[in-house]
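Q: You know discrete backbone vocabularies at least as well as I do. I have my own habits and do not want them to colour yours. No explanation is needed for now; the record alone will do.
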Amino acid sequence: MRPRKSRLVRNSPLARFFKPRGVPMSDLKTVVLKDEEWEAILLADHEGLDQDQAAVLMGVSRPTFSRVLASARRTVARALVEGMALEIGGGDFRVLPAASSRNSENSMKIAIASSGTDLSAPVDDRFGRAPNYLIYDTATKTFEVIANAAMNEGHGAGIKAAEIVIRAGATDLISGECGPKASEVLAKAGVKIHPARAMSVNDAIALYFGGAE
């Protein structure tokens, strides 16, 4: 059996305990909403992301996200209908910090949608259908090539490509066209998007460090 992947959580509740007004705690039962369940509600119900987008941000499959969200909604519904106190905490998750800014002294990774596998290759015009993503490390000045497994997907290639970039730890993306759903997922993960066309990967990196947006 494969080990279960921990869900990724980027946010923290402003309050971790809610109770019916005017009812002493001694008279109340408490139900627990896990941190990853709270994150699922935030992404799907508060921020309005579709489940494919939200699943990418939590680092899980869409069916897994759907199960987490359904469990979260049942817990909240039970608290409301049965007049129970609601506590948020616990679960199987890991906190993923927001991407650092481009001015950070720490190493950053820039993802570039590429038609080839080296720095002389052209920046690809279509993010979701790019054959490769070059992940450039600003500290070591080296890069790795990640093939786009979603390139030939019939549907949702952009969102799946966004997952590749996020999991690679990229703080920024250089690409041609990037669809609205993929852009939204990347933005929620703290990945900044920099459009580039008709230039090589190497020229795009140079333009990035020159301050172009």
In short: The first strand starts at residue 7 and ends at 9. Residues 99-105 have pLDDT under 50 and may be disordered. Helices lie at 35-46, 51-58, 62-82, 157-167, 180-188, 201-209.
